[in-house]
């Protein structure tokens, strides 16, 4: 017994020493990090818009035969608690909230937002056209964090080939939020595409694209989807203000929905929409970002309801699909209190005309999304944030459900 007690005492001492050493080490690290120069780049260089827009640099680790290969990415740890039940426990997705609300809460610890990318820069061709290729992955592929392809594209001069943000969305107006998906009404999707971009002047550009076909519809079991015609988009962007940092963007979409009905008749319904968006810098500490999109048959482009069959609807006695109209709008305000401390607040609203289409009771009619956060930037590559979110789902039978979420996140970019 004496030896056992001594062994246990020794093990306990080692544990205490390890804990003490860890605490001291963390204190030293925190003190050193906090003592770093509080530069303007701390916050401005690490916003969500900078990250998603690919405006940050990584590490160059090889340069062979005129090709420079860069590695970049970030690790994000999210600690989430929902006070009511929601289907998507990793992102605030109001369409997955049960109706009526259920009081069962849930806690999720996750690193699924983390991502990494390889970027290859080729030497310009004989006409001086730049060449770049990107492969980017995140850990959203499964609950265990399996890699999932995000982007895989080539840029050669004015042309883009591959999977990238749809040209119908504005990829330069991300609100500075920590929640993975962001506003419910965000026009937010990645598509395989062929895009041409023309710079009309230093402050204006125009782009057109043909993007991967496919409808997202609710149809009887005897019907089938077809993929025949690609989606077509066009966008015009005007930059303004100091250093052209602000912009207004207008995009249009034609979305063919191809299908075969119960009579085996091949048909195509055309979805169409516009998207007005912007990123306006009010001062060195204040930004407003917004989106106002409206159209018919374009539900697959919505962050909240993509994959829910809400481009269009057909009942068992119908011969054709009826497109579903959608309004998708949001407004966010970003403010920096100091060079290292910022807050973001905003609201999103998505509305469908499903109540007018005699769809089944309990079909989604509208969703709401609101969030507020405060972020502290220790350096230009490390930040922490606390965020509170609210989501609500409304159905065609006028019943609803909601959820409140608290999230803490730590983010390190490399």
UniProtKB/TrEMBL annotation:
Domain of life according to the entry: Bacteria
Protein name (record): Porin
């Amino acid at each position: 017994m004496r030896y056992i007690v001594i062994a246990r005492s020794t093990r306990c001492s080692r544990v205490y020493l390890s804990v003490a050493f860890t605490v001291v080490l963390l204190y030293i690290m925190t003190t050193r990090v906090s003592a770093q120069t509080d530069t303007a780049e701390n916050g401005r260089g690490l916003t969500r818009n900078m990250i998603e827009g690919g405006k940050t640099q990584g590490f160059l680790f090889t340069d062979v035969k005129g090709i420079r290969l860069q590695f970049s990415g970030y690790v994000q740890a999210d600690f989430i608690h929902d006070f009511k039940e929601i289907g998507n426990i990793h992102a605030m997705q109001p369409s997955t909230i049960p109706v009526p609300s259920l009081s069962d809460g849930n806690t999720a610890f996750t690193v699924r937002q983390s991502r990494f990318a390889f970027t290859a820069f080729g030497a310009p061709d004989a006409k001086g056209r730049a060449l770049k290729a990107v492969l980017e992955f995140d850990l959203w592929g499964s609950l265990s964090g399996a890699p999932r392809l995000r982007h895989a594209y080539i840029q050669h001069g004015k042309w883009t080939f591959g999977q990238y943000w749809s040209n119908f969305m504005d990829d330069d107006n991300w609100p500075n939020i920590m929640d993975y998906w962001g506003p419910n009404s965000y026009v937010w999707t990645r598509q395989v595409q062929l895009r041409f971009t023309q710079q009309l002047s230093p402050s204006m550009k125009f782009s057109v694209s043909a993007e991967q076909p496919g409808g997202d519809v609710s149809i009887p079991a005897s019907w089938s989807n077809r993929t025949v015609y690609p989606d077509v988009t066009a966008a015009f962007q005007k930059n303004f203000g100091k250093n052209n940092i602000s912009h207004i963007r207008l995009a249009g979409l034609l979305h063919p929905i191809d299908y075969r009905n119960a009579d085996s008749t091949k048909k195509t319904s055309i979805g169409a929409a516009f998207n007005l968006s912007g990123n306006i810098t009010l001062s060195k500490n204040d930004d407003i970002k917004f989106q106002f999109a409206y159209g018919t048959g374009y539900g697959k482009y919505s962050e909240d309801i993509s994959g829910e069959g809400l481009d269009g609807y057909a009942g068992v006695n119908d011969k054709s699909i009826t497109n579903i109209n959608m309004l998708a709008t949001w407004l966010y305000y970003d403010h920096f209190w100091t060079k290292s401390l910022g807050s973001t607040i905003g609201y999103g609203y998505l509305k469908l005309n499903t109540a007018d289409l005699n769809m089944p009771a309990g079909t989604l009619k509208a969703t709401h999304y609101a969030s507020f956060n405060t972020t502290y930037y220790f350096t230009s590559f490390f930040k922490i944030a606390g965020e509170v979110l609210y989501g609500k789902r409304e159905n065609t039978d006028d019943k609803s459900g909601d959820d409140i979420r608290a999230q803490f996140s730590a983010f390190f970019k490399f």
